[in-house]
Design goal:
Pathway: Cofactor biosynthesis; coenzyme A biosynthesis. The protein is an alpha/beta fold and about 325 residues long. The chain has helices at about 15-25, 35-45, 85-95, 95-100, 110-115, 160-175, 185-205, 220-235, 245-260, 265-270, 280-290, 295-310, and strands at about 10, 30-35, 50, 55-60, 65, 75-80, 105, 125, 130-135, 140-145, 150-155, 180. It folds into two domains: about 10-180, NAD(P)-binding Rossmann-like Domain (Rossmann fold, 3-Layer(aba) Sandwich), CATH 3.40.50.720; about 185-310, N-(1-d-carboxylethyl)-l-norvaline Dehydrogenase, domain 2.
Length: about 325
C-alpha cells in the first residue's frame, strides 16, 4: 500500500506567527515558509526551535523558500502571516502561485482580505489571539493561547466552503484549537477593536497596554471606539457588542487588565524604525469614515501622529 501523501502548505511572510504555525503543521503536512534570510539560515542549519505552550522541541525538515522559483510543484494551501504593510508586495511576488489556490490570512488589521481577493477567488479570513514571539533566528516562543483560532470564508462559493473544511481539519489534526467562523468579517473587526483602541497610544507613549486605563486617556480611547462603531455600522459589519459602551466595559474590565504588561507590535515597530500597520487600523477607520461621510477626528488625529512618528529618526 502506498503511503498517504500529506498536503503541502506554503506560509508567506513567516515571522513569529507563521514559523510557530509551520512548526506545528509539520507533523501533518509538508510545510514551506517564505521568511527572512536569518530565519531560513538557522532553520536549514539546525531546525526550527520552538518553546512554550505548543511544546519545546526542534523541528527539522521545514522547507525555506526565497522566492516563487524555490517552490514545489504542488501546493494545496497558502497561509499569509506577513505584516499587513507587506500584503500587496507579497501577493505580487507570489501572484502566479496564489492564483486559483485557497489562500488564508492570519494577519492583523482590516483590509488584507480585500487585497488578497484581487489575486484569488478563494480567500479565507482568520483571527488568532495566541501570544507568539521571536527569540532569535529560527527560534520562536508560544507564550499563551487564550482562545481558538477562527477561520471563515471571506470570498468564494462552494469551493471555498470545501477548502475551509479541509483546512480546519488539517489544523485540528496538528492539535491547534480552531473553529469555523460564520461571519469572519465581523470577527476581524472585533479583534481589531483592541488594536485600534490601544496600539497607537502605547506606541506613542512607549508604554504597555495597561497605560490605556489612565483616566487622562479615557476620552481618547472612547472616541476611537465610538467612531469605529459608527464606521462599522455604515460598512454593514455587525459587531459582537451592541453598543460602544458595552465594548468599552469589556475593554477596560477584561482586555486591558489581561494584557496590561504587554507591549503591542506597533510599539516595537516605532522603536526599531519600521513602518507600522496604522493604515490597517485607525487609518482604515478614518478612510472608511470619509467614504461614508462620518467624522473620525480621533482616528484621523492618532493616525497622523503615528505616521509622523514613523518619520522621526533615532527612536530605538
Amino acid at each position: 500500500m502506498e503511503p498517504i501523501q500529506q498536503p503541502t502548505v506554503l506560509i508567506l511572510g513567516a515571522g513569529a506567527v507563521g514559523l510557530s504555525l509551520a512548526g506545528k503543521l509539520h507533523d501533518v503536512a509538508t510545510v514551506c515558509v517564505a521568511c527572512r534570510q536569518a530565519h531560513a539560515s538557522a532553520i536549514v542549519e539546525r531546525g526550527l526551535v520552538m518553546e512554550g505552550v505548543w511544546g519545546d522541541r526542534t523541528v527539522r525538515g521545514i522547507g525555506c523558500v526565497m522566492g516563487p522559483e524555490d517552490l514545489p510543484t504542488s501546493i494545496d494551501y497558502i497561509i499569509i502571516t506577513a505584516k499587513g504593510t507587506d500584503t500587496r508586495a507579497i501577493c505580487e511576488e507570489y501572484a502566479a502561485v496564489i492564483r486559483d489556490r485557497p489562500t488564508a490570512t492570519l494577519q492583523n488589521g482590516i483590509g488584507n482580505e480585500e487585497i488578497i481577493a484581487e489575486y484569488t477567488d478563494t480567500v479565507i479570513g482568520g483571527t488568532v489571539t495566541t501570544n507568539f514571539s521571536v527569540s532569535g533566528p529560527g527560534h520562536v516562543r508560544v507564550l499563551s493561547e487564550s482562545a481558538p483560532m477562527h477561520l471563515g470564508i471571506w470570498s468564494g462559493g462552494a469551493d471555498a466552503a470545501r477548502a475551509l473544511d479541509r483546512l480546519i481539519a488539517l489544523i485540528r489534526s496538528a492539535s491547534i484549537p480552531v473553529e469555523a467562523e460564520p461571519d469572519i468579517r465581523a470577527g476581524k473587526w472585533a479583534k481589531a477593536l483592541l488594536n485600534i483602541a490601544v496600539n497607537p497610544i502605547c506606541a506613542l507613549l512607549r508604554a504597555p497596554v495597561g497605560v490605556a486605563a489612565d483616566p487622562e486617556l479615557r476620552e481618547t480611547v472612547s472616541g476611537l471606539i465610538r467612531e469605529t462603531f459608527a464606521v462599522a455600522g455604515a460598512e454593514g459589519v455587525k459587531l459582537p457588542w451592541a453598543t460602544p459602551d458595552e465594548y468599552l466595559g469589556y475593554l477596560f474590565g477584561v482586555q486591558v487588565p489581561n494584557f496590561a504588561a504587554v507591549y503591542p507590535s506597533m510599539y516595537y515597530d516605532l522603536q526599531h524604525g519600521r513602518r507600522t500597520e496604522i493604515d490597517l487600523l485607525n487609518g482604515y477607520i478614518a478612510a472608511a469614515g470619509e467614504r461614508h461621510g462620518i467624522e473620525t477626528p480621533y482616528n484621523r488625529c492618532i493616525t497622523g501622529l503615528v505616521r509622523s512618528a514613523e518619520k522621526q529618526p533615532g527612536r530605538s
